[in-house]
Description:
Layout: E1 5-7, H1 12-21, E2 26-28, H2 34-39, E3 47-50, E4 60-62, E5 66-70, H3 75-80, H4 82-87, H5 89-96, H6 101-106, H7 109-115, H8 122-128, E6 132-135, E7 139-141, H9 142-145, E8 146-148, E9 151-152, E10 160-166, E11 170-177, E12 184-193, E13 196-202, E14 209-210, H10 212-220, H11 245-267
Parallel strand pairs: 1-3, 2-3
Antiparallel strand pairs: 4-5, 5-10, 6-7, 6-10, 8-9, 11-12, 12-13, 13-14
Amino acid sequence: MTAMAYHRPRSVAEAAKLAAGDPDARVLAGGQSVLPSMKLGLLTPSAFIDLAGIADLQGIRTDGKNVVVGAMVTHASAAASRDVQTRIAALAHLAEGIGDPQVRNRGTIGGSLANSDPAADYPAAALGLGATIHTSKRTIAADDYFKGLFATALEPGELITAVSFPIPDQAGYVKFRQAASRFALVGVFVARFGKAVRVAVTGAGPCAFRAKGLEDALARKFAPDSCTGVTVAAAALNMDIHGSAAYRAHLIPVLAARAVAMARGSAE
């Protein structure tokens, strides 16, 4: 059995220093991606850097126009938060639909965004709401954060500390679940801010992305029928045993329409 070190830092600065000093160490947030990867033999870290003891990474608060979620907030805590439920109900709904109770009570928003699994739910919320990702070094707009398959704008040793989600006028999230994992075969997050609309898709491509055609159609009329007839190119989309690229392309406007219906229902 390979020996490894275990670190339990008490501050973000200490954790970042440990991460920068050992490229083979792995940051442990909820462990919902790291531990399965180790079981499959895909990952052999030299050390764990456990963030559970850092108080600054906990908590949910509002600052007027945003809901700010600490990086170590679990999915279950986000789903149960009154601040999230009352200000961005779609975000609470999204968190409540991640995995199973065990995953929701261990997995964290920071871990999900740092891993950027192509079928994860939180990337759709971050991109759909135009979130700002706060790190140990800087702030990163969600539009600049997702770079590709399991690839983000994070630099070596850089840690997510919190995520600021702008409070929309209306928002909804609907996903077509892969039955065994509850990951999104396709998930669509729709948010309206005045006359501007953002539509973010997860599960369909190498990473979360925005669907401009749907955004333009919904900006003209924020209603489910605006999604009818909008096509999404399948060429760059994922294909696997669960669904072809064409199937995922078909699902995107269908789920977008349902997300709009949800958004309108929650605000009317």
